[in-house]
Amino acid sequence: MADYLKIVQNAQPFMVTHEHPPREDVDGMDHARCAALHNAILKHGWVTSGRDAADFDRIARPLIDIESDSDRDAHPSVRAFLATALTLEDTSEFKDQKMNFFVYVSTLQCWEDWHDYCWPDGDDRALTLYQTLMGHASKADGLVYDQTVHKAIMHFDICHELKPDPGQPWRPFESVLTVWIEMVLCRKVVAMPDDVGREWHQIVRENFIQQLYGPKLDPKTGVRRCLADDDPWTIQSYTVDDISRTLATWDAVVTCIEQKMGLGESDATEQLLPWSSLSTAGLPIGFAREFLTHARKPRFEFIAPGLRIQDPQIFAQQARVGRCYDTPNILLFAGDDVVGAEHRTGPGQIYGQPSIPCQCGLYLLACERESSYPLEDGFSLVLPFAFPDRYHDPTGHANLSDGTPSEKHDSLLQLGVNTLNHDHAPQLEAFLDIVLANVKSRHWKVDRHGVAGGIDVWKAANTKRHWEK
């Protein structure tokens, strides 16, 4: 197992970090850095899917040698990238093999003339470097690179809106590749042999066909295949790291609040919800069950303004409502109000039935594990109020992460357009980080019941003074 991530670990010096941000002293793309990251992802996928590393070194070659005419309008730095970044396509040794570059994109390419609706006066400024796989788009586009500002965005479908930077949050190409490698390092995305989770038929002798089955789990990682057509990649709905980080942050939040309440250290081992409640609710094995059975129960009632830790009996009843996903919507921290379906946007309607009003609070959102970007620890904060739209209140400051205004009852703290992956909800750990920061800084007050102030405290998010907090 120590060697499983060796290839991508060796590429870590090229990854974007706070200490090593994207360079600003290069003319165009940082092609050497991007090629190193690209080649690491490609080779990791090859080797961990059961192929031989020596064969990769023999077969792989730069794209520019295969499609010499594809670089005719490319910026010199892009040409340099294409001359260094490796591909396996269109080689006789690789014929009839199927290996995509990453979990939702195919192999490296260099396509033009698709984006005149975005840049009517200069369509050749944009290139699609990796095409979206079928199943992730109705009319595939892919990773689009702007040769003028030298930034990239994951634009899955040509029919979806695309705006030049800064209309949408484009990123340096090396930042996109870094995020993809981080997903590999934390095993959110895993490459596995073709036979894992598959069945096929083999002719043993005349008139006799034998059905064969591959292993249910990847023997190296223990991961189950979820996506059928993204070979050799699959994506997990949660990872061991997701659980451990969320539990650590939860413990830090509980400890911080209890200290500000004047409570001493606790050696209590009682879990957040008892096994009986989880059993009654029929909660499946997954992130929610792991979190609820390992998070310690606090000695207070309110984890955030107006958000109460669930009563076990109420939890057992609500977790059964609208069960139509692999994991259901779960009201983790409850408010006192109810909001109608017409005020909610998603991602994913609460209960899976848009016509049903739902209780305000913080939900773990339902997850379909074979969806394009499954996420069992995604959350939605449903409030009993919405912020005014910017036409009526141009001074508002509550935004989604992509900079668009938060104007729905359930849009506060959501991400908006995701420039790197499929759109998805923020993770529970991020919410707990917000709670911890606001309690530590005394921006939120604490009383004998926990975090004080009531649900209206969240209205301060629409003011300039409080938004960044």
- Regions with pLDDT < 50 over 5+ consecutive residues? none
Beta-strand share of residues: 15-25%
Number of domains: 2
For the sheet with most strands, the description reads: 5 strands, antiparallel
The gross shape turns out to be globular
The beta-strand count equals: 17
Helical/strand content category: alpha+beta
Number of helices in the DSSP assignment: 12
Distance linking N and C termini: 41 Å
- Computed over alpha carbons, the radius of gyration is 24 Å
| Mean pLDDT, all residues | 83
Q: What is the N-to-C succession of helices and strands?
A: HHHEHHEEEEEHEEEEHHHEEHEEEHEEH
Strand order of the largest sheet: 11-12-13-14-15
| Helix share, percent | 10-25%
Task: Please sum up the structure shown.
The chain has 469 residues and is an alpha+beta fold.
Outline the structure in words.
It is a single chain. This protein has helices at residues 6-10, 31-48, 53-59, 63-66, 76-82, 173-185, 240-260, 275-281, 287-294, 312-318, 428-440, 464-467; strands at residues 61-62, 86-87, 105-111, 126-132, 140-146, 151-157, 189-191, 199-205, 208-213, 233-235, 302-304, 307-309, 330-339, 358-364, 379-382, 446-447, 450-451. It is of the alpha+beta class and 469 residues long. The protein folds into two domains: 6-191, no CATH class; 240-467, no CATH class. The strands form six sheets. The protein has a five-stranded antiparallel beta sheet with strand order 11-12-13-14-15. A hairpin with a 4-residue loop joins β5 (140-146) and β6. α2 packs parallel to α5 (76-82) and α7 (240-260) runs parallel beside α11. 41% of the residues are buried.
